[in-house]
Amino acid sequence: MKKKLVFATNNAHKLEEIRAILGSEIEILSLADIDCHDDIPETADTLDGNALQKAQYIYDKYGMDCFADDTGLEVKALGGQPGVHTARYAFPDRNDADANTAKLLGELEKKSDRRARFRTVIALIEKGETKIFEGIVEGEIASSKRGTQGFGYDPVFIPEQMGLTFAELGVEVKNTISHRARAVKKLAEYFHRRA
Questions:
Q1: For 139-149, how does the pLDDT look when each residue is reduced to its tens digit (9 = 90+)?
Q2: Closest Cα partner for 64 from 20, 128, 131?
Q3: Choosing from 70, 93, 96, 154, which is the catalytic residue?
Q4: CA distances from 105 to 7, 59, 61, 175 (A)
């Protein structure tokens, strides 16, 4: 019987990416698939904490094996900010990608060190046991937005040795080298080793 695993998200981009990487031997269910429409808390002060909090919520309420992720952009010159506040950097009550990017560029305007990294943490809870997987991509922040593909900070993040932003590289290339792709590959390797 095919293994079923809940991914604690309704983000269509993330679901598509994860399903493509994990392949057909695991059936990935979204929150909508299990009829969960709750506002799942994300109140931890670390990415690991948020990912675990979301996965634990689903596991406790639905009793299904599941995983959740959290991603942060960590900028060296800003002491690791926006970090856990990446999605709500400009406004604490909502995700506004354009405002977030504008705020970031404004804060880096007079800074020469533009090093940054994207970090994704995945928390898996399976039969009550927890495993953490992490994916990191190093890079830097461009001085202005470039490119039209992707979402969020993609137009300003230049992954190491690429010379182009994620938005210029395009979704297909991004999905092979991104922080999330690296974390999901570790998750996939974990399942393949046990298959």
A1: 999 999 999 99
A2: 128
A3: 70
A4: 32, 39, 41, 24
